[in-house]
Design brief:
11 strands
């Protein structure tokens, strides 16, 4: 059955903005090293850092009919997350669809497939994370679904989940855990600030992290280099 779920629940905007401010690496670590999309998902231009609520799209290979349908469900601050039902590297998305999303206040696209018109998208500063850039177009023939659970680049995504994306990749935070993960991020950043200060003073990571005893217990031995060695 093809279905479009409307009026999805989203995390508080302030929580999403907080997560985006910490970035993908911190969010991933803070929530237990889960939620990362595959490393094949790369931004089409450097420097973008965004966060938003996921509007998910499940669609057939090489057919972007459902992206057009999904635009209507988008709100300001959302990120469109597109997952083909089988492998596809076609260019589902280009400058015209970006214009439509910008008009709705969408802040970016994550797609486990191809995009095109990247020069125009870059000039618009519309952030896109995709697995490939490919000029091959698509048709508009076959139904799929909007705001259903999807697997995008190896990660489970549900409508309304927080999507955090930057130069390091893309990380998904379940909607119901968003506030908890933000708190964990803040604690992690505070701890890292202390570590950074100690490293800057010349302390060694092996001492700060208590790694000497661990290395010794696993058999690491230090020896003087023999004369003439």
């Amino acid at each position: 059955m093809s279905v479009v779920y409307t009026n999805i629940r989203r995390p508080d905007r302030a929580v999403i903005d907080g997560l985006a401010g910490h970035g993908v690496a911190t969010v991933h670590e803070a929530q237990g090293r889960i939620g990362l999309l595959a490393p094949t998902m790369r931004p089409i231009f450097a420097g973008a850092r965004i966060g938003g609520a996921a509007v998910t799209v499940s669609l057939p290979p090489a057919d972007n009919f459902m992206i057009h349908i999904a635009v209507e469900q988008c709100q300001k601050g959302d990120i469109l997350v597109v997952a083909p039902t089988s492998y596809s590297d076609a260019g589902y998305f280009g400058e015209l669809l970006a214009c439509s999303l910008v008009a709705r206040g969408v802040v970016g696209l994550v797609i486990d497939a191809g995009v095109r018109d990247v020069r125009d998208l870059t000039a618009m500063r519309f952030p896109v994370w995709s697995k490939v850039i490919y000029a091959q177009g698509t048709v508009k023939e076959t139904l799929g679904s909007v705001n259903v659970p999807v697997i995008c680049a190896g990660a489970a995504v549900e409508a309304g989940d927080a999507v955090i994306a930057d130069d390091d990749g893309v990380c998904i935070v379940p909607r119901k855990r968003a506030t908890e993960v933000l708190t964990a991020c803040e604690a992690r950043v505070s701890k890292e600030a202390s570590v950074r200060e100690r490293l800057s003073r010349g302390e060694l990571g092996i001492d700060i992290y208590g790694m000497r005893e661990k290395a010794k217990s696993r058999g690491l031995v230090y020896r003087e280099q023999p004369p003439g060695g």
